[in-house]
Design goal:
5-stranded mixed β-sheet, 5 helices, Purple Acid Phosphatase, chain A, domain 2
């Protein structure tokens, strides 16, 4: 059975993010190769990956080369750094699906780039990126930025295990 994974904020080709977020890489090339290796170590060819934005700062040719090396069926939810390029541009780089808006997944999870407003009375969980090493408190938010997950996509099953009380699973 194919798995489902989520991740965000790779910032491929963004050399300055190494310093901004204290990433443990010598340069952008090492960062790229490590993140590709870690993606493919957990994601199989038949798995599905939701990338929650800010994928690449590189040109179309270099971005396409990276996407083609990544396992799985890839859906991109556009992040603030992705929105300067059209949906068509991202589809041409190899993403199978591209959304300009958040996606409701499993009737219970809101997948978005930026965290969405969620109050404590809402029975939903917002899986998001954008805030990198920061983290919102509570069970209504789940940050899948690469900095929190050792630059590796997170299995949806793991997210559910962490946010849904065990008697509800």
């Amino acid at each position: 059975m194919a798995g489902v994974f989520m991740i965000s904020d790779h910032h491929f080709g963004h050399k300055s993010i190494i310093d901004f977020e204290s990433r443990p890489f010598a340069d952008a090339d090492e960062m790229t190769e490590t993140m590709i290796d870690r993606w493919n170590a957990v994601v199989g060819k038949d798995d599905k990956v939701f990338h929650l934005g800010d994928f690449s700062f590189l040109n179309r040719e270099k971005t396409t080369a990276i996407v083609s090396r990544l396992n799985g069926y890839k859906t991109l939810i556009l992040g603030n750094h992705d929105r300067g390029r059209s949906r068509a541009w991202w589809l041409e780089t190899g993403f199978q699906e591209v959304s300009e808006y958040p996606i409701v997944y499993g009737g219970f999870f809101f997948l978005s780039h930026e965290p969405m407003y969620m109050n404590k009375h809402m029975p939903y969980v917002n899986i998001h990126g954008h805030i990198h090493g920061q983290k919102y408190e509570g069970n209504h938010y789940f940050n899948v930025c690469v900095e929190h997950w050792d630059y590796t996509p997170v299995a949806f099953e793991e997210i559910v295990r962490r946010v849904v009380p065990s008697e509800e699973q």
